[in-house]
């Protein structure tokens, strides 16, 4: 979680109450550069013989500055005032960044060229979004520290780009609750282009995958796909279907039984094991798959031949394969389960996956009469459930309609 998260949320809340028009970003850039150089208003004023009040008003876009008057200060801060004559053209660059984020078009190269050519506020904002997209947390965090001071001066499209990038920054860091809180602060006023509206659905789909009821997750999935279809983004629809189907193993077998095509057969079989419907499972045609591996491990309590099956590249199956290796090859079952249950990584943030492994840890510790530790895990399970309910409420009560 970003270290200044409470302050950041307050800034976004205050900003959302405003509806700024497109304007020059000279003021925020001056403030950003001053912060980067660790200069106070007083120091900047004394160095360039410009009054503190005048600099403050320029930084906060309260006045249109006389460029000739502050030109020495701009030069000292490394700011080219000519850049700001192009501010009115910035929306097209923001839209290119948004397209890249929603996987509509790979604008990576042109965006990096733009960001490297300019060193102003707009370039920093676009660079932040690029770094988040590529999971470069270290560099993204440095930029975030600078951008936070310019929230008040952001236009609607800038705030949309910034907040949604920030939400993905938190999601990628495994901080789903924090991401939900920030996401819930957005207002329809800031969804000023179709790309941002589609991005909102992408984020809702991602968040609901971790913390939501399966019914809410399915509803968001279908609505998101409708939007993608309008944009002719068939490749993303196919990818989303794989993600969605991977989540279906946690659904009730009764729901999956109604749509038993070949693709869902595996999910149905695994669902029977996860819901402890073993008699029904044994009536099915025998085949060695993930469900059979789980049955041998959970019910027969013997080492399964997990190396004989293919694990799909989703969070549950990848974690399960790692669990089997830690348990049977390295003898570190207890250590691995504790890491999953009590850490703040991606797995622990996923409601259903963390629940599965938490129950495994309780059984392990109960067999060793370590009941105090079991109580801690039960408290953790309650926290997991509370987090799920919080996220469901965030998604249900968004100030814009999904």
Structure description:
- This protein has 402 residues and is mainly alpha-helical.
- Among the domains are: 188 residues, no CATH class; 58 residues, no CATH class.
- Helix content is 67%, strand content 0%.
- It has 23 helices and no strands.
- α20 crosses α22.
- It is elongated, with a radius of gyration of 25 Å.
- About 1% of the residues have low confidence.
List the helices and strands and how they pair.
Elements: H1 5-16, H2 26-36, H3 41-48, H4 52-59, H5 67-76, H6 90-101, H7 108-117, H8 121-133, H9 137-147, H10 156-172, H11 176-184, H12 194-210, H13 214-230, H14 234-247, H15 253-257, H16 262-274, H17 278-282, H18 290-298, H19 315-328, H20 333-342, H21 346-349, H22 351-366, H23 371-396
Helix pairs in contact: 6-8, 6-10, 7-8, 8-9, 8-10, 10-11, 10-12, 11-12, 11-23, 12-13, 12-23, 13-14, 16-18, 19-20, 20-22, 22-23
């Amino acid at each position: 979680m970003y270290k200044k998260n409470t302050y950041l949320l307050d800034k976004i809340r205050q900003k959302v109450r405003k509806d700024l028009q497109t304007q020059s970003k000279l003021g925020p850039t001056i403030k950003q550069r001053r912060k980067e150089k660790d200069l106070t208003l007083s120091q900047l004023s004394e160095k360039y013989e410009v009054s503190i009040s005048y600099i403050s008003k320029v930084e906060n876009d309260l006045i249109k500055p006389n460029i000739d008057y502050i030109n020495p200060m701009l030069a000292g801060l490394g700011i080219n005032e000519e850049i700001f004559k192009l501010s009115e053209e910035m929306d097209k660059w923001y839209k290119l960044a948004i397209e890249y984020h929603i996987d509509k078009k790979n604008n990576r190269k042109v965006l990096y060229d733009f960001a490297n050519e300019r060193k102003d506020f707009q370039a920093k904002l676009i660079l932040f979004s690029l770094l988040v997209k590529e999971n470069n947390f270290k560099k993204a965090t440095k930029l975030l520290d600078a951008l936070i001071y310019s929230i008040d001066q952001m236009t609607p499209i800038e705030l949309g780009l910034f907040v949604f990038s920030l939400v993905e920054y938190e999601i990628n860091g495994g901080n789903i609750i924090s991401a939900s809180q920030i996401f819930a602060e957005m207002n329809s006023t800031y969804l000023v282009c179709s790309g941002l509206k589609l991005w909102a659905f992408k984020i809702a789909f991602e968040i609901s995958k971790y913390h939501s009821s399966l019914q809410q997750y399915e509803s968001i999935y279908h609505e998101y796909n409708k939007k993608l279809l309008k944009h002719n983004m068939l490749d993303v629809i196919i990818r989303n279907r794989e993600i969605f189907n991977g989540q279906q193993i946690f659904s009730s077998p009764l729901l999956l039984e109604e749509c038993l095509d070949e693709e869902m057969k595996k999910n149905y079989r695994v669902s029977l094991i996860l819901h402890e419907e073993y008699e029904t499972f044994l009536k099915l045609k025998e085949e060695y798959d993930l469900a059979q591996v789980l049955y041998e491990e959970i019910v027969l309590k013997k080492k399964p031949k997990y190396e004989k099956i293919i694990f799909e590249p989703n969070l549950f199956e990848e974690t399960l394969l790692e669990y089997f290796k830690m348990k049977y090859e390295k003898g570190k079952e207890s250590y691995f389960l504790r890491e999953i249950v009590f850490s703040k990584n991606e797995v622990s943030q996923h409601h259903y996956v963390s629940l599965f492994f938490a129950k495994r840890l309780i059984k392990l510790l109960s067999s060793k009469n370590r009941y105090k530790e079991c109580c801690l895990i039960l408290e953790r399970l309650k926290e997991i459930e509370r987090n799920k309910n919080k996220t469901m409420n965030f998604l249900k009560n968004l100030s814009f309609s999904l």
